[in-house]
From TrEMBL, chain A:
<feature type="binding site">
    <location>
        <position position="58"/>
    </location>
    <ligand>
        <name>[4Fe-4S] cluster 2</name>
    </ligand>
</feature>
<feature type="binding site">
    <location>
        <position position="479"/>
    </location>
    <ligand>
        <name>[Ni-4Fe-4S] cluster</name>
    </ligand>
</feature>
<feature type="binding site">
    <location>
        <position position="337"/>
    </location>
    <ligand>
        <name>[Ni-4Fe-4S] cluster</name>
    </ligand>
</feature>
<feature type="binding site">
    <location>
        <position position="448"/>
    </location>
    <ligand>
        <name>[Ni-4Fe-4S] cluster</name>
    </ligand>
</feature>
<feature type="binding site">
    <location>
        <position position="257"/>
    </location>
    <ligand>
        <name>[Ni-4Fe-4S] cluster</name>
    </ligand>
</feature>
<dbReference type="InterPro" id="IPR010047">
    <property type="entry name" value="CODH"/>
</dbReference>
<feature type="binding site">
    <location>
        <position position="41"/>
    </location>
    <ligand>
        <name>[4Fe-4S] cluster 1</name>
    </ligand>
</feature>
<feature type="binding site">
    <location>
        <position position="293"/>
    </location>
    <ligand>
        <name>[Ni-4Fe-4S] cluster</name>
    </ligand>
</feature>
<keyword id="KW-0560">Oxidoreductase</keyword>
<dbReference type="Pfam" id="PF03063">
    <property type="entry name" value="Prismane"/>
</dbReference>
<keyword id="KW-0533">Nickel</keyword>
<feature type="binding site">
    <location>
        <position position="53"/>
    </location>
    <ligand>
        <name>[4Fe-4S] cluster 2</name>
    </ligand>
</feature>
<dbReference type="GO" id="GO:0004601">
    <property type="term" value="F:peroxidase activity"/>
</dbReference>
<dbReference type="GO" id="GO:0042542">
    <property type="term" value="P:response to hydrogen peroxide"/>
</dbReference>
<dbReference type="GO" id="GO:0043885">
    <property type="term" value="F:anaerobic carbon-monoxide dehydrogenase activity"/>
</dbReference>
<feature type="binding site">
    <location>
        <position position="520"/>
    </location>
    <ligand>
        <name>[Ni-4Fe-4S] cluster</name>
    </ligand>
</feature>
<keyword id="KW-0479">Metal-binding</keyword>
Length: 628, 151
């Protein structure tokens, strides 16, 4: 093989133009490395490889049914799962903590709130008030922070205020109401350390508990706090794909999930003196190029940022390709989905890497820590560094843009508030369509893109196509949205791909059959929709003809999100098992017994057609039970 | 004929070949995710021998030029196939005398642990056009298939 030929072995992608682009790149990406990592460890896949102590790795075989310590397959699997869920929960709790801190500091400094409606809503939810918006925001952020910092043995206050009462009752009965969210992560990792807990069911219940704290705080509340600072989502049309990169500007790509860390920088980038700096080096100004979930977040609220935000270019496993266009001048990282694979590409194309939160410190990034008090000074440092990089790199780097990639006219800005407003201020029109059967059911398709479930976005996109063809409307959140929109399923014309009934609904309303709620954090928004629908009908969440799929789940965070879905009582489809099948107990509890506990269940299937049939069957069963 | 070769220097003892062998010979269809790793019926047909000092030797059936196991088999259950050169086992003809087990110098014909009523040996994944699954599963390429001439 020619040394410079990297295109011979890329994995498949649902996005064919992207697949061709990556195959033709003169550099290596994750898509090229799939083949060389094809051999997977069978013990690892089943979750029965234990590396918790120096006796290990211990593996389960017919001749060795227990680890040296005596741990069974059930113990190994549930310990590994609890570790992953605790870690994933910790990630989201980090995000909500920073978001609440930024809101709190903005309130103290009497800064700007772009979403006063969201603030009122939170005050109402929490039952707090204040003499002005600053005091209200202070009280709201303090309520969140106080809960996060509680010890594990003190239950959090906002859970009951945020949760749907029938759900709260179930959680209370199961004994899975979480204590302080940070302490729950601590408890989780303690429990699954070497030679402590060996009760698989006890550890699975902890996973659910972590799911609740992750879902209510990390997901739902992060969105609502973001809404206060950044502005509420508004439904509009926006472009997606590599086409959004405009080489006439100095382009900054942000990776992560913490949009509030960019509030100051984002505002500065459009101010005349900063634009003048860009013009002095030959650019028209600055643009933010959306990538990963923070890009989805920008897109969701894009109505407030039309001047600075160019559009969403792609999801996690598109980020290397976005950089490989050469059109990006700097990457600012602050959280996950910042692939280590971007580092050599940034080096080669002289792309400046800056990290503002050391949880995402990249090996070759300069660390400019975000602290609220110093944000002004740091924005200037970042701007100057990026301008210097632009000046240095642009004459040296050949651009390899793909301006025809993606779609121009995608429906975005969908949230639980904007969608309800679009429906005329109540969920009744949607409920009526579900009752009449014009919409058979609702599927939340969420999560990431992984490269081994058929390839980049392959299972997700194929599943969505199958679902809409069955008149099931799809709501998305996370990197899955980035893939689905780059494949053209979020333009109104995609209505043609839906089944006859859903197609008619979409055409009448001028909407696509897939509605994008934005970042993975917005899984929390989907769950608000579910709650409000259940409330409007007067039933519990598991009774809704609603299913969840994280077809191409990737990370520990996805597992924590998934546990929230299970705690809510939703059927959760996964394309690949979460390394649990080596345990009969874990498999039985997750796929079967959970139905009796919370109403939820895990459904594992890697085939799009079969998966859609399984999910349709669940929806039909729920419809039958509701006599509709 | 084709034979599996080993390079003991490369073997890390990960047992991925073992899982692949179990998966290739399981009674019920399924994926590696639902392969029952605790079920003795899914026993692998080779062994990885550790020297206790961090070195491993993968021991695979040689499909010998003059196989002692075939020579010892009185019932005709073990036969060296003339076209492939591979030693294949016919359970229906087996008298369970285990003479083959006693005569194999490599210890690679073994009674099955689940029932003790038949023997287990490498069949070179004869029904799989892609060849032995263990070889494909080895991340270190410590085992591979080579064409050899048999005199």
């Amino acid at each position: 093989m020619n040394e410079s030929c990297y295109g011979c072995s890329t994995c498949a992608s649902a996005d064919k133009p992207l697949e061709g682009f990556i195959a033709g790149l003169p550099m290596e990406t994750s898509h090229h490395r799939v083949e060389s990592q094809e051999t997977k460890c069978g013990f690892g896949l089943q979750g029965v490889c234990c590396r918790l102590c120096a006796n290990g790795p211990c593996r389960i075989t017919p001749e060795s049914p227990r680890g040296i310590c005596g741990a069974t397959a059930d113990v190994m699997v549930t310990r590994n799962l609890l570790r992953a869920v605790a870690s994933g929960s910790g990630c989201y709790i980090h995000v909500v903590e920073n978001t609440a801190l930024n809101l709190r500091n903005t309130a103290i400094e009497k800064g700007k709130f772009k979403g006063p409606g969201a603030l009122e809503r939170l005050c109402k939810l929490f039952g707090v008030s204040g003499k002005d918006d600053y005091e209200k925001a202070l009280n709201v952020s303090n309520a969140v922070l106080n809960d996060l910092y509680k010890p594990e043995y003190v239950k959090m206050d906002l859970v009951e205020k945020m949760a749907y009462p029938p759900r709260f009752k179930v959680w209370k009965e199961l004994g899975i109401l979480p204590g302080g969210a940070k302490s729950e992560v601590f408890k989780g990792v303690v429990k699954c350390s070497t030679n402590l807990n060996s009760d698989p069911v006890n550890m699975l219940l902890d996973c659910l508990k972590l799911g609740i704290s992750t879902g209510i705080y990390g997901l739902t509340l992060t969105n609502l706090l973001n809404d206060v600072l950044l502005g509420e989502p508004e439904i509009r049309m926006a472009p997606v794909g590599l086409r959004v990169i405009d080489p006439d500007y100095i382009n900054i790509m942000i990776t992560g999930h913490q949009h509030t860390m960019f509030v100051h920088l984002q505002e500065r980038l459009t101010e005349p003196d900063v634009v003048a700096k860009a013009k002095a080096v030959g650019a028209k100004g600055f643009k933010l190029v959306g990538c990963t979930c923070v890009g989805q977040d920008l897109q969701l609220r894009g109505a407030h940022y039309t001047e600075i935000f160019d559009g969403h270019a792609g999801n996690n496993y598109t980020s290397e390709a976005i950089l490989a266009t050469g059109g990006i001048d700097a990457v600012i990282s602050e959280f996950n989905c910042t692939l280590p694979g971007i580092e050599p590409i940034c080096d080669e194309l002289l792309i400046k890497q800056i990290c503002v939160d050391d949880v995402a410190k990249k090996a070759n990034a300069e660390y400019v820590p975000f602290t609220f008090a110093d944000r002004g000074k740091q924005s200037e440092i970042i701007i100057d560094k990026i301008i210097a990089a632009y000046k240095e790199r642009r004459p040296k780097v050949k651009l390899n843009l793909l301006p025809e990639h993606g779609y121009e006219n995608n429906l975005t800005g969908v949230s639980e508030v904007s969608l309800k407003k679009f429906l005329g201020g109540s969920w009744k029109p949607l409920i009526d369509l579900i009752v009449s059967g014009d919409i058979k059911g609702v599927a939340g398709v969420v999560g990431c893109s992984s490269l081994v479930a058929g390839g980049h976005d392959v299972l997700t996109v194929a599943l969505v196509k199958e679902l809409i063809a069955k008149d099931i409307i799809v709501l998305t959140a996370g990197c899955s949205s980035g893939g689905i929109e780059n494949c053209g399923l979020m333009v109104p014309e995609a209505a043609e791909l839906a089944g006859p009934k859903l197609k008619a609904v979409c055409k009448k309303l001028g909407i696509p059959p897939v509605l994008n709620f934005g970042p993975c954090l917005a899984i929390g928004r989907l769950e608000i929709v579910a709650t409000e629908l259940a409330e409007a009908i007067g039933i519990d969440i598991p009774q809704l003809p609603l299913v969840l799929s994280a077809a191409q789940w990737l990370e520990e965070q996805a597992l924590a999100d998934g546990c929230f879905g299970l705690a809510l009582g939703l059927p959760l489809h996964l394309g690949l098992p979460p390394f649990v099948t080596g345990s009969k107990v874990a498999t039985q509890v997750l796929c079967q017994d959970m139905k009796a506990l919370t109403g939820g269940q895990v459904i594992i299937n890697g085939d799009a057609k079969e998966s859609a049939e399984l999910l349709e069957k669940v929806i039909l069963e729920k419809r039958a039970a509701l006599k509709i | 004929m084709k034979r599996i070769f080993i390079d003991r220097e490369k073997c890390d003892g990960c047992k991925n070949c073992t899982v692949a062998c179990m998966q290739a010979h399981r009674a019920t269809p399924g994926t590696v995710y639902d392969l029952d790793l605790l079920d003795r019926k899914n026993e692998a047909r080779h062994t990885i021998v550790s020297d206790g000092k961090g070195r491993y030797t993968p021991v695979f059936c040689r499909h010998c030029a003059v196989p002692d196991c075939v020579g010892a088999c009185m019932s005709g259950a073990l036969k060296k196939e003339p076209d492939t050169g591979h030693v294949q086992y016919d359970e229906k003809r087996c008298g369970t005398c285990f003479m083959c087990v006693m005569s194999c110098p490599y210890g690679n014909v073994k009674p099955d642990k689940a029932t003790r009523s038949k023997i287990l040996k490498c069949d070179f994944c004869k029904d799989d056009p892609e060849g032995p699954n263990c070889v494909r599963a080895c991340p270190k390429k410590a085992i591979w298939v080579e064409e050899v001439e048999v005199l």
